[in-house]
Specification:
single chain; Na+/H+ antiporter like fold; Glutaredoxin; mainly alpha; two-stranded antiparallel ribbon; 626 residues
Length: 626
């Protein structure tokens, strides 16, 4: 599964600490916190601070304003000195007086002017001078800066509201809407906070799978089966546009998931971990080994009809794997995450090929030719540089229908679409900055003129408003290619709706099935052993051979224990493995037993892998502290 399914969220690594932070207001219980990372010489910070001042006046003690340092000395020489000066004044209880004065002055700010104002505050100047040059003041500024970077501060000003980064507009009414916490804003903030959790997508999948198991094994079972098996479509049953709800979840909705898989593969091949041939060799060979070994173990235990399930233990659910790795934070080497993510991309490619080659439902050549024609039309749209989304959507829907009618899994249409979505080279920033700055400057000028006229003119009714909004929209849209925009639009739906719906439809197995019968025992053992032992064994053995043969190099900073732990985590199969079980066995007790094997094997792999990584991370932490 692609590693970019969940939306990127940013929350504060360290919450508000009144004993350390500079906090203004917020005396009321449950007050909203607004944390500002800013630079005293940043011109944009200077424009935002008056808005925050107005916000504080409107909300009173319902708002706690917190200031943290993020000086950009390279862009604004002298910013670090001003930050340390504010800290030195804070040692004598006058932080906010100097803070307010600094933002009221017009740059450039001379050091002698700052010192003159400090004297006017009746501070102990000798102590101020010592504090100004002290290691404590420097360390405090550096800590704020470092914590901000880890929390997603990439420029100034950056605002966090209740510990979640605020990426909305900086005008007063937008900030007031976010800070007042109406129901919609609270829901959105809570959703963003949840999405920022490393394992949020995996948690939703687990809940969906648990709900399916409950529904399939209680008095709700008849209703669950009726819902999953009910026919939905256009036209008579058993025709091209008529499928069960479960099939729609599997083929229709999963096409969007495979679109993200395809975009992820494309990005990694062009600019990611697979772009460098030497760096890509190890995860490529490891992924191949991670498919061959569990398949071989399964086939050793299963013959005849049961052998068709060989693909079930070969797929990795990378959402869980990367989620568990992320829980270890800085205790896991970054190189290990890069390796696992690249391995997942290759694993996705192998899963797509497996579906296309080994599980056709009886080829219909006419429809297959129609699918080829739709693919060629997508290629033509790409070559003609068509950037509107709707032609691609229309052709891809037709392609999915053609693939389904041809006997090929329709979800593969998503991968094909990903290959032909148009991209654009990264734009030069300077002309876009000029375009945006010109639009905003003209709007500001028109606003001043309207106020000076005093005739009650509304600036949003003037022609310049539409002109400026079009230019700003165009400049903003140019930052993302059509492929990027589609990925951002569908990624949250995939992580929190599409995959959970598929898990709900695919995981609802009857646990009362006889898993230890002569016909199903080997399937269960083959899947579990393939995931828990075969998957990490294949990854480790292929990696060892590649490194020994000197065709690949190990990831930087990764210990053997951590590598083994991550390889075991790759045995978490869930989503794609469940899809493989459906394709391999269709209906009957074999499908249920294979899915039970996936659930048991994935759980064991997650527990064992996390335990191995926990021991390794603990040892690494002890080594660093020593």
């Amino acid at each position: 599964m692609a590693q970019h399914l969940a939306p990127a969220g940013h929350t504060l690594r360290r919450g508000v600490d009144r004993a350390r932070d500079h906090v203004r207001g917020g005396a009321e219980p449950g007050a909203v916190s607004l944390i500002l990372y800013a630079d005293y010489l940043c011109p944009y910070c200077r424009r935002l601070v008056p808005v925050i001042r107005r916000l504080r006046q409107a909300l009173g003690d319902r708002l706690a304003y917190v200031f943290r340092h993020a000086p950009n000395e390279r862009a604004h020489p002298g910013a670090e000195f001003l930050a340390r000066a504010a800290e030195a004044a804070g040692r004598q209880g006058r932080f906010w007086e100097l803070h307010d004065w600094l933002y009221q002055q017009e740059p450039p700010l001379k050091q002698e002017d700052v010192l003159a104002f400090v004297r006017s505050l009746d501070l102990d100047m000798e102590r101020f001078a010592r504090d100004l040059e002290s290691d404590e003041a420097r360390r405090r500024v550096e800590e704020d800066l470092a914590e901000g970077r880890r929390s997603g501060v990439t420029g100034t000003p950056t605002v966090f509201i209740d510990a979640v980064r605020y990426d909305g507009a900086w005008d007063f009414h937008s900030l007031l809407e976010a800070a007042e916490r109406p129901v919609a804003a609270r829901v959105q903030r809570s959703a963003r906070a949840f999405a920022s959790l490393p394992a949020s997508g995996g948690m939703v999948l687990l809940l969906a799978a648990a709900a399916a198991l409950v529904c399939a094994n209680t008095t709700l079972a008849p209703y669950y089966r009726m819902f999953i098996g009910s026919s939905f479509g256009i036209g008579p049953p058993e025709r091209m546009l008529s499928m069960t709800v479960g099939a729609w979840f599997s083929e229709g909705l999963l096409a969007i998931f495979f679109l993200l898989v395809g975009l992820d593969i494309r990005r990694e091949l062009s600019v990611g971990a697979l772009a460098d041939r030497r760096a890509a060799i190890l995860p490529v060979l490891a992924a191949i080994g991670g498919v061959l070994a569990p398949a071989a173990i399964y086939l050793l235990l299963n013959r005849d009809a049961a052998a068709t399930g060989w693909s079930v233990p070969t797929a990795t659910d990378i959402a869980f794997t990367l989620g568990i790795l992320a829980l270890f934070g800085d205790r896991i080497a970054p190189g290990l995450r890069v390796f696992v993510a690249a391995l997942a991309v290759v694993d996705d490619i192998l899963s797509v090929l497996t579906l296309a080659i080994f599980y056709p439902r009886g080829f219909a050549p006419t429809w297959l030719l129609a699918a080829v024609g739709a693919t060629l039309l997508l290629f033509a749209l790409n070559r003609w540089r068509v950037y509107a989304a709707w032609p691609y959507v229309v052709v891809t829907v037709a392609l999915a229908l053609f693939l389904h009618a041809a006997g090929v899994h329709a979800a593969l249409a998503g991968v094909i679409l990903a290959a032909f979505l148009p991209t654009l080279p990264a734009p030069a920033v300077t002309p876009l900055l000029a375009q945006a700055a010109t639009s905003l400057a003209e709007l500001e000028h028109a606003e001043h003129e309207a106020k000076a006229a005093g005739e009650g003119r509304r600036i949003e009714q003037e022609p310049i408003w539409e002109w400026a909004s079009r230019n700003l929209s165009a400049a903003s849209a140019r930052l993302l290619s059509p492929a990027d925009r589609i990925e951002r639009a569908v990624a949250p739906w995939t992580a929190y709706v599409i995959l959970p719906l598929f898990a709900f439809s695919a995981t609802g197995v009857d646990l009362h099935v006889d898993v230890w019968s002569s016909a199903t025992r080997a399937i269960l053992i083959g899947v579990i052993v393939g995931l828990v032992i075969g998957k990490p064994l294949g990854i480790a053995l292929a990696s060892w051979l590649a490194i020994r043969a000197r065709v690949a190099v190990p990831p930087d900073g990764v210990t053997l224990r951590d590598f083994i732990g991550a390889a075991v985590l790759c045995g978490v199969g869930d989503t794609v493995a469940l899809l493989m079980a459906d394709q391999a066995f269709h209906e009957g007790p074999e499908t249920a037993v294979a899915k039970i094997g996936v659930l048991v094997g994935s759980t064991l792999a997650a527990i064992i892998g996390a335990a191995v990584l926990g021991v390794g991370a603990g040892a690494t932490a002890q080594t660093r502290s020593g």
